Amino acid sequence: MSKMRSEKVTDVNVNFPPMVSPNRSVTAGDVESMVTQVKADVEGQVSVVSAQLADTVIDLKSGGINVLSSGATGTGNVIDSNAISSALSLTAISSVQRVKIPDGTYLVNKTIVIPRGVHLELGQKAIIRPTSGDFNIFQLKPEARLTGGVVDLQNVNFTKAVYYLDAEDVFQFYGQSAVISDMNILNKVPTVKGAFTGTGIFCEAKTNMGFIDNVKFNNLTFINFDKVIHLRVDPILDEMFKTDPNVMAWVNANYFFQITAQNFKYGIYLEGKASVPRDVGGNMFDQCQFQAEETTEAIVYCEGAYNTFNLFMWDLHKMNDSKPAIQFTKSSRFNEIHTAMQLEITESWIDEGYMNKICSPGNYVTETRTLANRISTPYKGQFNGNQDDYLINGNLRGYTVTQTKGAAPTGTLTDIFLPDSEQGPSWNMTGTDYMNHIEIVIDCSTDPVVYAQYIGTVHPWDATPEGLLVEGWTGTEWIWLHEVKGNQSNDYLISPPYSAVDFLHKIRISFYGSPKADKKVTIGRVVAISSKALGKAYIPQFTDALTMVDVNGVARTIKLNADGTWSNASTTSLSISPALPGEATMAGEQDDILLLADKRYSVISTGAVKTGGNIADMFSLKREAFCR
Fold first, then answer.
1. Using DSSP, how many helices (H) and how many strands (E) does the chain show?
2. How far is CA 265 from the centre of its chain?
3. What is the signed CA dihedral for 62, 64, 68, 74, rounded to 10 degrees?
């Protein structure tokens, strides 16, 4: 690089005209003197401008305006904020919209504001080091880009945000794309364990019609923060909305890709609502890694809607049992989390919202087993018949249930065999804990569950235990099947597919604690699935045959043969095939209250004239029968 200069490019200034006495006329000598002075002034300042332009040309050839040309040192001994801001301001009068910060250490004492459409590019070893912790490090305007480098906060008590976006600047969805990528951020290790401060990414809306949409955050690492990602629409919008229904703001449709975080209180904190006036929704978090510690409050805290999370959450077992890793509040709606945590995830979430989805590949959540559906939650699908549950009506086949530890319940123990998940024995869990638990034993040796899987309990959604252990007696020993702790809202506690028993003779269930104020725990049902004998499906358990009508209207009887095959299967088709191993099936549709309703109800048609079929056919088992 050519000689560095700190002079600012300014207008050429000359002293013209020179001082002349008003009492005499201008002579030829005066004119010559003026010309000489002007020439000297112009030549001197042109020399300065030429040198600065030479530096700038070299910077432009390297791909941008270099902050060193504006006086930055990168030595770590001089505050470089003004020089960096000066380089950024040059983009306003230049066709070049890239500013480069080469490798080095740059002290800053105020926020670096990146103007609209400008790309601030840091070298791989460029370090931004603030002199205090009471200001945001970077603030981006719409269409701005920030890439590369390191932010070192280890020498200050940082209380603000590394990246701050203000919705008042209006980051719109169409035609704009602000980007922050490829940076490492290291905050100070707190003197008090877990007392992290500061925020990594802070997107905030505080005024009417504020937008933060379509901003992309890629490949960022954060260590030692209070909140890693905080998306917020201020509650003041709620108050404004009460008097003006046109008031609203959004932090929506933003992208967070390959975010890595360790040592934090909150990983992702979404503060707002599911709709206007405080809409925080439609944000996508993908391929993120979050390391949980004992001081972690939550990895995901969400008040908004329609957000999707594809996360790997390490070591959730380190967290305090009373601090679920995933927390959906009452205002949350239709959010979706995918994680590979399997066993750990069941004891690490609380969902007080509506239709949020938490699932894990290979796990035993709603999408994996219809049986494990949240059958007692309002507005969720039910499986009243549960014809593939081996334990349904087990007491009619000789099964018994005995309480072996703890205070007696209210209600009847055998109600756990009923299809009705809202009816069951209840216990007051006051004073119970891991060592002082309730224990019940189910003896199903009169008809052992062959190759039993998905073994556990179903609870009304307001009567769940905090801790639960399920064990199975194989005929020779008790084996571990499933265990959860710190449960706050999971109302089905069912073992994963790999917990299986060839012949299950007994089930022992131990449970303790309650997250609810009334300390009540109810067991609506105890469940177990067999992948043999069609899972004790509806037909063999409640009848020996089922009459259906074939395509020609001929009644044919479907029977289950001793070898597990179906008779007459080739002449008429079941509405849904019978239960198969590891697959929930509705063979008889026995939980459809309108099935064959024409035998009990009447139905009439008003309006358009029927053009085909029969009204009664809409109640039949045959799905091809119709009324048009």
1. 4, 39
2. 16
3. -90
State the pairing for strand pair 555-560/566-567: antiparallel
CB 74 within 8 A of CB 80: yes
When pLDDT is cut at 50, 70 and 90, the band that residue 367 belongs to is very low
Q: pLDDT tens-digit profile of 471-516?
A: 999 999 999 999 888 888 888 888 877 788 999 999 999 999 998 9
Kindly report each contact of residues 238-245 with a partner whose C-beta sits within 8 Å and lies 24 or more positions away, as own/partner: 238/277, 238/278, 240/208, 240/277, 241/276, 241/277
Mean pLDDT estimate for the chain: 83
Q: 3-state class of 568 per DSSP? A: coil
Please choose, from the candidates 432, 398, 353, 363, the residue with its C-alpha nearest in 3D space to the C-alpha of residue 506: 398
Closest residue by Cα to residue 116 from 142, 147, 98, 97: 142
Backbone angle region of 150, left / alpha / beta, with phi > 0 → left and psi within -120 to 50 → alpha: beta
Q: What is the pLDDT of residue 566?
A: 59
- Give the model confidence (pLDDT) of 439-475 as tens digits: 999 999 998 988 888 899 989 878 999 999 999 999 9
Residue (of 5, 1, 33, 2) closest to 19 by Cα position: 33
- Residue where the block lists tokens 């922050």: 180
Q: Letter for the amino acid at 490? A: N
Contact assessment for residue 129 and residue 107, using Cβ atoms and an 8 Å cutoff: yes
Q: What are phi and psi of 44, to 5 degrees?
A: -65, -45
Which helix (H) or strand (E) segment is 83 a member of?
helix 81-89
Q: How far apart are the first and last CA of the chain?
A: 82
